[in-house]
Amino acid sequence: MHWRAKGVLQKVLGHVPGGERAHYLLQRRFGGLRDFRREFDIKMDDWRLMAGHLQAAGRPIAGARLFEIGSGWYPTFPFACYLGGARQVITVDLNRHIKPELVRDCAQHLARHVALIAEACGVPEDDVRQRQQQLAARLRQGDDVGIATDGVVRYEAPADASRTALPGQQVDCVFSNSVLEHVLPDVVDGIYREAMRILAPGGIMFHSVNCGDHYAYVDRRINQLNYLQYSDRQWRQWDNAFLYQNRMRAYEFVDRAVEAGFDIVLNTECPREKRLAELANMKVHPQFAHIPAERLCVTSIDFIGRKRAQAAS
Fold first, then answer.
1. pLDDT digits (tens, 9 = 90+) for 88-116
2. CA nearest 308: which of 194, 206, 203?
3. Pfam families under this entry (predicted)?
4. Which of 5, 31, 195, 284 gives the lowest tally of CB atoms within 10 Å of its CB?
5. pTM higher than the cut 0.70
6. Biggest CA-to-CA distance, the chain
């Protein structure tokens, strides 16, 4: 599908009654959700990487109090954290996107990843398997996410991650996966400020950001730097409620975290030769011309910011 056509279609669906439902059905029939197993396994690989980063930063998932930004259609990360022994996982979304049928599928597919979760979290495999079987059974009988996880996972939507009702200094880790690239820049700053408030001293904020042009996943004629050819005014023709992309570069997410008071303890920003070559063969819009090529070309980043132990809430 041509990327411009998809952008226009999604823009239209974002402004008509029933558009959200129609968008979901199109994703199930033609989009990323048509092969749920593949989509789910990709998310679990992302979760595995996050679990490793948290472990290396001294904040293992087992026993942790976690706050996820961007629940999506099904709660892969919260469920995996629950199976791995998290104390609490609060997951929030600005809009209520969660789909019961996908939640059940998610719980069922976790059975294939029991050993991975146990290893990543350092907990007994039998405990993970028992929790997974209980979770899947309870969801099948109609329990909601909270009841099915004995209150460990709490889903809240609509909810604003930049203005929560949580008490200060009560969370060990705030995290997101492929979310911040879809948030207005000012809201990113608000999310960071709120994370600083709710994190306990020494707590961490982990974000995995996919800051490449997402239309490249549906149109192989373009690459993930495609959207850098357009001004903000031009890009608004294809930006839409279902696939808003802020076009912030990887380093900007980290710089804004530093400005919010976080100490950066992980930063995977790395220019790839492939992206540098793609950038050299395209005409970048002047609004991006001030950014060095080795920073402009980066299309993904994982980073961790730590709240100082002596920092105030």
1. 999 999 999 899 999 999 999 999 999 99
2. 203
3. Methyltransf_11
4. 5
5. yes
6. 57
